[in-house]
Amino acid sequence: MSILSSIGRIASEFTAARTRFNTARSIRSLPLELQKDIGWPEAFDSKTGYRHGHGGEAV
Description:
The chain is mainly alpha-helical and 59 residues long.
């Protein structure tokens, strides 16, 4: 693995994490009623930071 591929992988991971953060921030800025309509409180536990899949298990 070359240093350039390592840098590219790190940059990709950073971009993906930043996109997830911005999405979560946008959803949290919606009114609570809309968050409930899209299932946000059940899909993401803000206390633990885990996303929950089917059956309530952490994904």
